[in-house]
Design a protein that fits this description.
The complex is a heterotrimer of chains A (383), B (269) and C (432). Chain A is an alpha/beta fold. Chain A has 14 helices and 12 strands. A 7-stranded mixed beta sheet of chain A has the order 1-7-6-5-4-2-3, with helices on both faces. In chain A, helix 7 links the parallel strand 5 and strand 6. In chain A, helix 12 crosses helix 14. The N and C termini of chain A lie far apart (50 Å). By secondary structure, chain B is an alpha/beta fold. Chain B has an 8-stranded mixed beta sheet with strand order 1-2-4-3-5-6-7-8, with helices on both faces. Chain C folds into 2 domains: 273 residues, Type I PLP-dependent aspartate aminotransferase-like (Major domain) (Aspartate Aminotransferase, domain 2); 139 residues, Aspartate Aminotransferase, domain 1 (Alpha-Beta Complex). Chain C is 38% helix and 14% strand. In chain C, the strands form 3 sheets. Chain C has a 7-stranded mixed beta sheet, sandwiched between helices. A 5-stranded mixed beta sheet of chain C has the order 10-11-14-13-12. The chains are: A alpha/beta (383), B alpha/beta (269), C alpha/beta (432). Chains B and C meet through helix 1, helix 5, helix 7 and helix 12 of B and helix 3, strand 1, strand 9, helix 10 and helix 11 of C.
């Protein structure tokens, strides 16, 4: 079955009682059991432990990613947290790619260290740096590729090999490319993490997360954390995400094509210092990107000549593009990571991983590319 | 449609199609205090599948002129008169509760007319609680409450129904209120007095079907099984989750059983 | 009432079968447009009304269906059809019975939307109305013409809070064989079930007390199942064969649910004002606490009446539970638990005082809805009726100092201190 067919039909079936073509929203806490002996015979007892609408989304995402099972969470961060809690205990060590999302960085450095878990932030783009960070107690390697917001890419296959050798689990945050463009399990990874808030939903309607496991054994560990910490996804969010998933491939294709056109426009613009988009020949890891993914996604960043002041001027004057956090939706968004998404990362660390002050991040949406380019062109005139 | 039986104006629904006596006929008989709407879904199903359908209101019920008939035997005679006046042929009887007693009499006495009988939620006799008969005579609202309480299972009591938005129990109550005064009491007394069930059952030689409900409090399983014992080779089905009002409480299951039985024993075109 | 279950039980359980698939305790939200048929026979039998079931969510939907059966049970009706709003319910009910050339006799004291529908909109389609003072019972009989096919009124009238004498009007309807429809929004079935007094059809804006939380717009029409549409040839939409459904005669086939079936078969199909499943779910949540909320609405209303009557800046207070109200006796008869939670009162100092009060009252929300859990308040002279002159205001039963209050569920002390803030601001206009 092809991806587009799966994104519509996987995990769901018409309601057997009424024929309703869409999975009902089971906005319920609990489930009436037929009898004591038949407890859980219909599969559900309490909606923290499982809910039919959320289950439908989990099944769909598992099939889309090609994994054994999936656990859905209240947010992308709770998906990341659950991954850490499932595979790390006090005294354990994890390697996190040094350009991880600011929230992931904060979770590791400000929260999980309190529970005796050690972290090393390694350059995911350099397998040797990752390999040399491995310790005896390394249990988890978490990478994000392309990374937010630097777009730095990680060689999934190379890191998976290192993880395997170290006896650690390799979790890949696949939010930016989705399984439509990038298939971490086929490259050797063990877990795929998503902020479903982004492309899975695609419409800025929900906040949610998911962890897809390659094997049932791994899935069981994640599910255990999902139930025992209770950071679950709501049925309503699951239902909206189920709807969003149905157009994932067409949105990814179109948003990527828009992003490519915008990257080319910016690269040719005299007021632009640099553009970073994996689809550009000038992108340092263009070859790796082309090799391990079938598309380049719809995220990019650029720097306006004149640095931070010029970037701010552009963001304040640009029309059509919304100055907002989040990414991956059909609405095009413009963000300043240093003051917004990555403000919690220390300046020194930001500089080290390449989040420069003048970096302007674009999440390219589904509008006509002429309109998006036109808006940037007008804004650049103001700079 | 309205038609004339022994000089009285009688109403029957024909399932949304014109009555055509060149086709095999399915006659649906309602139970005590009820009327044609009780069989609405099923009657339309057969009417749209090349059967002529007749769902009469017994005299004194809803749209049919009274007075109500006072014995099961007289109801069978009346039914025969109705069939004659319409020249209906190749008759499959589908009967519920009290209608089953009428069907026993009719099918045993007018054998030539009958191709098959489906007995739904009934025994050989229907002894009626004296408190209910008393209520029907003196306090109809209390009798209706008892009928509703015993007749329907929990889905009915929670105002569900097979048709979206419709409450089967509320409709049942309105129907019982629309009968002429004394109709329900006359029905219940006729049921209580009927004692020819065994003889009648033994005399029926056409194919027969019995559909019972697992949660029937008006015609308990034991009574139904007695009917089964005295019929010749009956096809027996028990719908476990239904109360007495099978056609309303289990419309899909009962329709399928009736369909299979009547299509094979009284095929049309 | 000969129900097997009592009101509070029905308000929690009626209409709902525990989900067969997973046992979900709450009603699933069937947010779907359509339904997959297992085979063509099933499809055709649903369209031919040979079996229940759902084909397309404009016509019916499982979540909405639970709400419909729940309301039918509470109201004592045989069937209910939910609509996208209360106005849609009224429109669907009227057009299910009346056609060009037909006539309505309606109470003159009604919600402005109802008046406008009958006065301005329906005449464009040849349906006319005569409005009668709801306290003039003989007037209803006198207004009936040969082409009158509906008598319509609100049990608790708007804005005067006059109580409609249900039995007297039902009797007139019955004598002329005309169905009597009641807008029962302000009372809800918890305070009065109009079918118990001879009404034939009810409607509710379930947006109000039924839903109770100001979260969803919706309406419902309930079929009393107690009107014989086929007794004369006056109601052909219900008693004659209906061509779009294979010539089925709805009166013959559906008996006590014939009227509701006509709405579903025609209005929902051809006009399409269906309720969304999500709204139905929210409204179901509201109905679960209907009696609890109504009791509190009523007790808070009594306390507010006491407070207002004893306030020196209040010139008058109107509520049917007060002996001074002209409908007091009827209120006791039809609304023994209480006459609803809408109160009107006058602030000393006229229009300016009313305006100052509204602008400074605390806690009570200034808006045009009624029946929310939160207390709502409005000054008709400067808002809903601001564009009409003083004379027209009087005709509509509105005075310049009038405040309409929908008493909510807040703590009474907080409500009253919120009101004091309004009165303080209005004091300078009171002329004292």
């Amino acid at each position: 079955m092809g991806f587009s067919t799966k994104q519509i039909h996987a995990g769901v079936k018409p309601d057997p009682t009424t024929g309703a073509i869409l999975t009902p929203i089971y906005q319920t806490t609990t489930y009436v059991q037929p009898s004591v002996d038949e407890y859980l015979s219909k599969g559900f007892s309490y909606s923290r432990s499982g809910n039919p609408t959320v289950r439908a989304l989990e099944n769909k995402l598992a099939e889309l990613e090609g994994g054994a099972d999936c656990a859905a969470f209240g947010t992308g961060m709770s998906a990341v947290t659950a991954t850490m809690l499932a595979f790390l205990s006090a005294g354990d060590h994890a390697i996190i790619s040094d350009v991880a999302y600011g929230g992931t960085y904060r979770l590791c450095t400000k929260v999980l260290t309190r529970f005796g878990i050690e972290f090393t932030f390694a350059n995911g783009a350099d397998p040797n740096d990752v390999a040399s960070s491995v310790r005896d107690n390394t249990k988890l390697i978490l990478t994000e590729t392309p990374a937010n917001p630097t777009m730095k890419c990680t060689d999934i296959a190379a890191i998976s090999k290192i993880a395997k050798k170290a006896g650690a689990v390799h979790a890949v945050d696949n939010t930016f490319l989705t399984p439509y463009f990038q298939r971490p399990f086929e490259l050797g990874a063990d877990l795929s993490i998503h902020s479903t808030t982004k492309y899975m939903d695609g419409h800025n309607a929900t906040v949610g997360g998911a962890v897809i496991s390659k094997t049932a054994e791994l899935a069981e560990k994640v599910k255990f954390i999902q139930n025992s910490t209770g950071s679950i996804m709501s049925p309503m969010v699951a239902w909206l995400t189920l709807q969003g998933c149905k157009t994932l491939s067409v949105r990814m294709e179109q948003q990527s094509a828009n992003a490519m056109a915008i990257a080319e426009f910016l690269e040719a613009h005299p007021k632009v210092e640099q553009v970073c988009y994996p689809g550009l020949k000038s992108f340092a890891q263009h070859e790796l990107s082309s090799q391990q993914a079938t598309g380049y996604g719809a995220m990019l960043w650029f720097e306006v000549k004149g640095g931070l002041a010029a970037g701010k001027k552009l963001m304040d004057s640009v029309k059509l593009w919304s100055l907002a956090e989040n990414l991956g939706s059909v609405e095009s968004l413009i963000t300043h990571p240093v003051t917004m998404t990555h403000a919690d990362v220390e300046a020194k660390e930001r500089a080290r991983v390449g989040i420069i002050d003048g970096l302007v991040r674009l999440s390219v949406g589904l509008e006509d590319k002429e309109d998006l380019i036109g808006a940037l062109e007008n804004a650049l005139k103001q700079v | 449609m309205y038609f004339d039986v022994n000089g009285k104006r009688i109403f029957a629904t024909t399932g949304g199609k014109k009555f055509d006596n060149s086709l095999p006929t399915v006659i649906f008989l309602h139970g005590s205090g009820l009327d044609h709407t009780f069989w609405g879904l099923h009657s339309r199903f057969f009417a749209f599948r090349k059967y002529s359908v007749l769902v009469p209101d017994f005299p004194g019920h809803t749209h049919s002129e009274g007075p109500p008939l006072t014995s099961i035997e007289s109801m069978a005679d009346w039914l025969n008169d109705a069939v004659e006046s319409l020249c209906a042929r190749d008759i499959s009887i589908v009967a519920h509760s009290q209608g089953c007693l009428v069907a026993l009499e009719f099918a045993s006495r007018f054998k030539d007319r009958v191709k098959s009988v489906s007995f739904v939620a009934s025994g050989l006799a229907t002894p009626v609680n004296s408190a209910l008969i008393d209520a029907a005579e003196n306090n109809p609202e209390a009798a209706i409450a008892m009928m509703v309480g015993w007749g329907f299972g929990s889905a009915g009591h929670l105002h569900q129904g097979p048709v979206p938005g419709n409450s089967m129990v509320a409709a049942g109550r309105k129907i019982m209120r629309s009968n002429v005064p004394g109709a329900l009491a006359a029905d219940l007394k006729a049921c209580n007095a009927y004692s020819n069930g065994k003889t009648a059952a033994a005399a029926i030689d056409c194919p027969v079907q019995v559909i019972l409900a697992g949660k029937d409090r008006m015609a308990p399983r034991k009574a139904g099984m007695e009917l089964v014992e005295h019929l010749h080779n009956p096809e027996l089905h028990i719908i476990q989750e239904s109360g007495h009002m099978i056609p309303q409480e289990a419309p899909d299951e009962s329709r399928l059983l009736l369909r299979n039985f009547i299509f094979s024993n009284n095929p049309s075109g | 009432m000969s129900d097997f279950y009592e009101f509070d039980t029905l308000s929690l359980h009626a209409g709902q079968t525990v989900d067969k698939e997973f046992g979900a305790r709450a009603t699933p939200i069937y947010q779907t447009t359509s339904y997959v048929f297992p085979d063509t026979d099933t499809a055709s039998s649903i369209f031919n009304l040979e079996r229940g079931g759902h084909a397309y969510s404009r016509i019916s939907n499982p979540t909405v269906g639970v709400l419909e059966q729940r309301i039918a049970s509470l109201e004592g009706g045989s069937a209910a059809v939910c609509t996208a709003s209360g106005m849609a319910a009224t429109f669907c009910a009227i057009t299910a019975i009346l056609s060009q050339g037909d006539h309505i006799v309606a109470s003159s004291q009604m919600y402005g939307g109802n008046i406008s529908l009958m006065k301005n909109t329906l005449p464009r389609f040849g349906i006319t109305a005569t409005f009668v003072d709801p306290t003039d019972i003989d007037g209803f009989g006198k207004a009936i013409k040969d082409n009158t096919k509906l008598i319509y009124g609100e049990l608790i009238g708007n804005p005067g809070l006059d109580i409609l004498d249900l039995e007297a009007i039902a009797k007139i309807g019955s004598q002329h064989h005309i169905p009597f429809m009641v807008d029962a929004t302000f009372n809800t079935p918890y305070l009065c079930r109009p079918f118990d007094f001879g009404a034939n059809i009810t409607m509710h804006s379930v947006t109000k007390w039924m839903g109770g939380h100001g979260a969803a717009i919706g309406g419902v029409v309930v079929d009393g199942g107690n009107f014989d549409w086929g007794a004369t040839d006056k109601y052909p939409t219900i008693s004659e064969p209906y061509a779009p459904f294979q010539g089925i005669n709805l009166w013959e086939e559906f008996g006590p649910a014939a009227f509701a079936t006509r709405i579903r078969a025609e209005a929902m199909r051809d006009f399409g004002p269906s309720m969304s499943p999500m709204n139905a779910f929210l409204l179901l949540q509201g109905i679960e606490t209907l009696s609890l909320r109504m009791d509190k609405h009523l007790s808070n209303t009594m306390k507010m009446l006491d407070f207002l009557q004893n306030h020196k800046q209040v010139s008058w207070v109107s509520h049917p539970s007060l002996p001074s109200h002209s409908s007091h006796a009827l209120a006791k008869k039809y609304l023994p638990k209480g006459a609803g939670s809408i109160v009107s009162f006058g602030v000393k100092g006229g229009r300016d005082a009313g305006k100052a009060f509204i602008e400074n009252v605390e806690l009570a929300s200034h808006l045009a809805n009624v029946g929310d859990a939160k207390t709502l308040i409005i000054h008709p002279a400067t808002t809903t009726h601001s564009r009409i002159d003083a004379q027209a205001l009087v005709a509509a039963g509105i005075t310049e100092d009038m405040i309409r209050l929908s008493v909510g569920l807040e703590d009474i002390k907080d409500l009253q201190s919120g009101f004091e803030a309004g009165f303080r601001a209005a004091r300078k206009f009171a002329g004292e």
